[in-house]
Amino acid sequence: MKKYFELLAARLPEGRFRHSLGVADTAAGLAVKNGIDPEQARLAGLLHDYARDLPPERLLELAEEAGLISCEIERRLPLLLHGPVGALLLERELGITDKAVLQAVARHTVGAPAMTPLDKIIYLADVIEPGRQFAGVHTLRQAAAADLDTAFLKALETTIVYVLDREQLLHPATVEARNFILMTRGG
What we know:
Layout: H1 2-11, H2 14-33, H3 38-47, H4 56-66, H5 72-76, H6 82-94, H7 99-107, H8 117-128, H9 137-146, H10 148-165, H11 172-184
Helix pairs in contact: 2-3, 2-8, 3-7, 3-8, 4-6, 6-7, 7-8, 8-10, 9-10, 10-11
């Protein structure tokens, strides 16, 4: 793990590095609470933004080459690709082969239907880590302390409302992730 700290400290801007440390710690705590391997969660949380600062055209280029584009929205908003491209680069550049970690990194940007507990933890930790300050974050943190699925659902809905309020494009995977949770709960 130490080698990844040093690598990220050199690769990421200071604020993004602090955010990654916050996500790693938050993810590890959520993992312990939910019976998931905390070191796997810490690693995924630490590395989740590995590709976040690549230029949009490079994210798009790497995603095109690897066949990672799932919809037109990603071509219009290449920043959404930093999760899947990050997972690709973690395997290529760092030799990380843990499929659960790679999937959690890939899915942390927009979500997906049938997310695993580790996927949900990384998505949620990215939203609620201690450096995040926005209206409603305290409620999300309280929900995360009580129930992972409820907190994950609230985090998805917070994201959806944020995007709609700004009249931006909403990725269909985020809606699918929300609907999947509701359907599996019988909603």
